[in-house]
Amino acid sequence: MVEVACYAPAINATVFPSQTSTLVWASSPYANYADYAWYVNFGSGSSGSSNRYGSSAVRLVRGGQ
């Protein structure tokens, strides 16, 4: 999750000390285009969608219990 109190990177570096990539793919596909997926930009705190042909990091997370 983007840390609103932080910028460049927009992530809590204490909780995620190894954040090396700013663009991280989300697991959710973009509904209107099969070749697109959502991403989070931890450099700026923004999010959006892009084609999945580029190489970016993936963050593994566990769902709530």
Give an overview in words:
This protein has 65 residues and is an all-beta fold. The chain has one domain. The chain has no helices and four strands. It has a four-stranded mixed β-sheet, with no helix packed on it. A hairpin with a 4-residue loop joins strand 2 and strand 3.
What does the secondary structure layout of this molecule look like, with pairings?
Elements: E1 23-29, E2 36-41, E3 46-51, E4 57-58
Parallel strand pairs: 1-4
Antiparallel strand pairs: 1-2, 2-3
Observed structural traits:
65 residues; mainly beta; 4-stranded mixed β-sheet; 4 strands; 0% helix; 32% strand
The domain tally reads 1
Calculate the mean pLDDT score and round it.
78
Main β sheet profile: 4 strands, mixed
Structural class: mainly beta
State which percent range the strand residues make up.
25-35%
Q: Gap between N and C termini, in Å? A: 17 Å
Number of β-strand runs: 4
Number of helical segments with 4 or more residues? 0
| SSE order | EEEE
> What spatial order of strands do you see in the largest sheet?
3-2-1-4
Computed over alpha carbons, the radius of gyration is: 12 Å
Quick one: overall form?
globular
The percent of residues in helical segments reads under 10%
Instruction: Report low-confidence residues grouped into runs of 5 or more.
Output: none
